[in-house]
Amino acid sequence: MSNNRVRKFIPRKKYCRFCADKTLVLDYKRPDILQQFVTERGKIIGRRITGTCAKHQRALTRAIKRARQMALMYYTTVHSTEVKKKTMSI
Questions:
Q1: Measured distance CA(24)–CA(22) in Å, rounded
Q2: Distance CA 42, CA 37 (A)
């Protein structure tokens, strides 16, 4: 009977990547790092999921918004050509 025990899923403790690695600079000019905190649809992933601390989550949000404003990152997903064709044909 000891072999039939049900094992519970124990989630791993999340940690802030920016607190753990001081050399990882949070800057709007580095969209490769910022892209890891944005979904495919362009939404910023919350700190509950990513594990970043509140201080760095605020800085991360600010950097993502600046990168979008400077056209280094997309606001949403890349639009397909079908959308353009529909607007052009009308």
A1: 5
A2: 9
In this prediction the pTM is 0.73
Q: Say whether pLDDT at 3 is over 80.
A: no
Cα(65)–Cα(79) distance, integer angstroms = 20
Instruction: Calculate the alpha carbon distances from 6 to 10, 30, 68 in Å.
Output: 12, 44, 47
Amino acid at 45: I
Residue by residue, DSSP assigns 38-62 as B-TTSPBPPHHHH---HHHHHHHHH
Contact 70, 26 (CB under 8 A): no
Domains and CATH numbers, the chain: 11-78 (4.10.640.10)
